[in-house]
Amino acid sequence: MLDLPSIYAEYGESWLPQMLWACVGTLRLSAVSFLLAVVLGLIGALGRTSPLPLFRGLAIGYIEVCRGLPALVILYIVYYVPPQLFPGAKWLALSAFFAAVIGLGLQGGAVLAEVFRSGIEALHRGQMEAALTLGMTPAKGMRYIVLPQAFRIVLPPVANYAIGSLKDTSVCSLIGMNELMNDAKSIASSDYMPLAVYVLAALIYFVMSYPLSICARAVEARLSLSR
After folding, report:
1. What is the pLDDT of residue 213?
2. Three-state secondary structure call for residue 41
3. What confidence score (pLDDT) does residue 58 get?
4. pLDDT, position 49
5. Could you give phi then psi for residue 134, rounded to 5 degrees?
6. Structure pTM?
7. Using an 8 Å Cβ cutoff, are 53 and 89 in contact?
8. 3-state SS of the chain?
9. Considering 27, 57, 63, 152, which has the largest number of Cβ atoms within 10 A of its Cβ?
10. Does residue 103 contact residue 171 with C-beta atoms inside 8 Å?
11. Cα separation, 108 vs 50, whole angstroms
């Protein structure tokens, strides 16, 4: 059994700064991909609930495909496939960061689209009818009446997804993204102590994700009190 305290006392001074610096990449990737997922999810939910068959069909196709594929498969497709299909178009060769953002955003958007759709459909249809009666357009009724109320409903699953997206960034190490897990793999292979390194990485992931759960519970409690 490894004596982890003594290992961290000896190597922690060199490991911890490297891994904390790599956390910057993890947090940046998580934040940007989450914002993209929210935008795509909202567009997908509006398309999914649209009365127009074309928009509804496109939204269903996007949701079913991207939700049914593992995040790693989507990352590989985004990062490796376009340059091979069009060898002359160098602009298609994305950096690891942008490929990771697009890959995680595409899958997360499909997941959040169903979350947002369930929140929208949970409201009584009379809400939109009342908005139209007051002279609002369907777009304004959705923006000012339906979506604010749906936000209260979908906040818990969206917060859970945000926490999960932070942990899902670890798969991006497989395309060379400079983030915490990629750095941990480098340290583990160079110092030959994978257990100690990955335990430290797990603790850092927990330290990053736990405040998110606290904030989500605080916002949820505040919203429930304001009803």
Report:
1. 84
2. helix
3. 94
4. 85
5. -80, 0
6. 0.87
7. no
8. CCCHHHHHHHHHHHHHHHHHHHHHHHHHHHHHHHHHHHHHHHHHHHHHCCCCHHHHHHHHHHHHHHHHCCHHHHHHHHHHHHHHHCCCCHHHCCCHHHHHHHHHHHHHHHHHHHHHHHHHHHCCCHHHHHHHHCCCCHHHHHHHHHHHHHHHHHHHHHHHHHHHHHHHHHHHHHHCCCCHHHHHHHHHHHHCCHHHHHHHHHHHHHHHHHHHHHHHHHHHHHHHHCC
9. 63
10. no
11. 20
- Domains of the chain with CATH codes: 4-225 (1.10.3720.10)
Structure tokens at 1: 């059994």
Residue 46 makes CB contacts below 8 A (sequence gap 6+) with: 59, 142
**Residue whose structure tokens are 């069009």:** 86
